[in-house]
Amino acid sequence: MFERPQTGGDRAVLVAMAIGGATDLEVQLQEFEELVRSAGAEVVAVESGSRHRPDSRLFVGSGKADAIRDQVAVHGADLVIFNHELSPSQERNLEQHLQCRVLDRAGLILDIFAQRARSHEGKLQVELAQLRHMSTRLVRGWTHLERQKGGIGLRGPGETQLETDRRLLAARIKHIERRLEKVERTREQGRQARLRNEVPTVSLVGYTNAGKSTLFNRLTDSDVYQADQLFATLDPTLRRLDLAPHQSVILADTVGFVRDLPHELVAAFKATLTETREAALLLHVIDAADPERERHIAQVEDVLAEIGAEDVPCWRIYNKIDTLPERDDAAAERFAGGEGEEAFWLSAQTGEGVERLYQRLAESFTESMRRGWVEVPPSAGRLRGRLYDENAVEAEQTGDEGAIRLRVQLPERRFQDLFREAGLDPETAFVGPGEDPGDTEDAQAAGARASVPGSGA
Fold it and tell me: Which of 226, 337, 381, 387 is deepest in the core (most CB within 10 A)?
């Protein structure tokens, strides 16, 4: 029986099959090779073919399995990677037949994520996904797992090594889930604080390598790692983006999606993907020059639906227009969104078109601002201080009988909350939008002041 080697190698034979009459094998193979290279492996040979349905024992037929074994021997390959999801028994049978390690697509993506995770949360999420994936594969060709423990001081109550490993694995999964719950509570506290302060979140989503991190850096003047490779960045990054005086949003750069994203990853990254599900707006970044653009758009939308974000408002951002072979006014028409959908045509690399996106974001998130003069009694000094703390005061004057007149600008809901917390009627306090409180009819007619409800003032 084949014993898996304790050390790995990076010389790989790739296997991609067109199952059930699939016609996009060449496109799938191109993306598959990029994934393998992103993992750091060297592609030494590629085996492809077609089958009506996968073989229950080897996934491929016996003849194709023999051809793969010959490629392994000729090129001295260390592993064989399938662009498909294999069952535990198929992996075990293939390793015995090929006499080398076998990895499926889910295992490959998990390995890439393990390499790219940098934050504490990201490492925990990847480890959880790996353990869940591994828990179904303890029956593979590891023959020692089927033996009972023996030897002086090692004899237990008949428990096999396989059962012990399953129990330890389950305990480790529970431990990581508890730690992730703590991280999720911390993230939720930050999200609730942003909601209280009226700071909405705008989340960048899209297929991997569509240019999300490049656009994120362009908008926020950040230096998030970016590279022309799949899953260049994994850990989510949040930055404040100032759109107008007293109006900001939190821009979130999230992990990229990919075809057949392992369900273990979607489940493990639930806390991270909450930033997407609860965002005020999604910016769906699309590689405009990608020939598989429409297919990737559909796959991203499928994942958004899976995490419950299908109802979040979404703008399409057609990126990388600088790489298009043809550039004319008619080209932009082809990338316009559907009815009622906002679409933008830009290059995050050169900056072309980014200013229009920025201006539209500013327009969208400043429509609910309250700007103008308010008048509050001298006893409302604490409210005055809070308005200054939020940088909402543009000018100040002293009115009759020591009343405080302030020209403010801040989000409407925050305006309402601050005045009600101070025991003042927001609408009575608001004099008007004029440059000077005397410019408004309300101020001229009544010199309106804020009054404490029920005080008779």
Answer: 387
The owner of tokens 């821009």 is 251
**3-class SS at 99?**
coil
Beta-carbon contacts of 190 under 8 Å, excluding residues fewer than 6 positions away, are: none
d(CA 200, CA 75) in angstroms, rounded, equals 54
CA distance 418 to 121: 35
Nearest to 181 by CA among 253, 113, 125, 255: 125
Q: What residues have CB less than 8 Å from 152, skipping those under 6 apart?
A: none
Cα 15 to Cα 74: distance, rounded to the nearest angstrom: 16
Query: Around Cβ 315, how many Cβ atoms within 10 Å?
Result: 19
The SS3 assignment for 231 reads coil
**CB neighbours (10 Å) of residue 122?**
20
CA distance 127 to 135: 12
Binning pLDDT at 50, 70 and 90, where does residue 192 land? low
Query: What are the backbone angles phi and psi of residue 435, rounded to the nearest 5°?
Result: -65, -25
Question: CA angle, corner 90, sides to 86 and 96, nearest 5?
Answer: 130
- pLDDT for the residue numbered 415: 86
CB 223 within 8 A of CB 192: no
66-80, 120-134, 222-236, 262-276: range with lowest mean pLDDT: 222-236
| Strand-pair partners of 393 | 408
3-state helix, strand, coil in the chain (%, to 5): 45, 20, 35
Pairing of strands 237-244, 247-253: antiparallel
Query: What is the reported pLDDT for 42?
Result: 92
Strand residues in 138-289 grouped as ranges (E): 201-206, 237-244, 247-253, 281-287
Chain segment 207-222, per-residue pLDDT in tens: 888 888 889 889 988 7
Average pLDDT over residues 347-351: 91
- CB distance 138 to 162 below 8 Å: yes
Closest CA to 344 of 312, 316, 314: 316
Q: Round to whole Å and give the CA distance between 398 and 375.
A: 9
Diameter of the chain measured on Cα atoms:
99
| Burial class, 348, CB count within 10 angstroms (exposed 0-12 / middle 13-18 / buried 19+) | buried
d(CA 324, CA 368): 38
Q: In what order do the strands lie in the sheet with 79-82?
A: 42-51, 11-19, 79-82, 101-103
